[in-house]
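user: Kindly work through both lines:
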Amino acid sequence: MPQTIFTPYHYHTTKKLRRFFITLGVILWSVAMITTITPIFPHILYRLSPQTSQILAAGIAKTGAIVELPQAEATIALPPKDDTLPAKNYLIIPSIGINGIIHEGTDWENILRQGVWRVPDFPTPDTGKPVILAAHRWGYLNWSNQFRRWNSFYNLPKTKVGDKIEIVWQQRKYEYEIIAAETGDKITDYSADLILYTCQLWNSPVRVLRYAKRIN
């Protein structure tokens, strides 16, 4: 039986392969660690700096601060009332799994802890436009994964032009379609029927914004 003879070529080739696989392993391990840590990083900061949640909520509230009320429409075409729909008001975005209650009020810090917030001083779906909804991206430590999926805007950046949105308001279903997507530090189009926004990055003034038109 012939005997394998290892030459310097084989030695260097084996050494290169070993180095390649070690490097690949380090890269994959680093990516896995970043993927694992990124979702919990904001929660670590919440623990280290309790006032952070208030700062983030204040930033979200400031983005929706009214500059000038859009002119109210004379009449709004209302979809039919459906008694089988929930009595509470809901935001539903099928493409990213959002199915959360829309909360009302001016106490934005506490309301944002509950999920989706309708920015006050702007119309409701049955009174005019734009309806403006905001939410945290990362949420809070006491949120379950299911609650975060339904009520946070973590995946809002994944939505695309053409995606459908539903709002159940006083047992009437309003249907919308995203017509524009942008990032910036302020709302630029108050003519849209519906505006959604959230933080783009952790504690950053840049917002992820989605503009939609009503289609029913």
Remarks:
- The longest helix spans residues 8-37.
- Residues 17 and 23 are 10 Å apart (CA to CA).
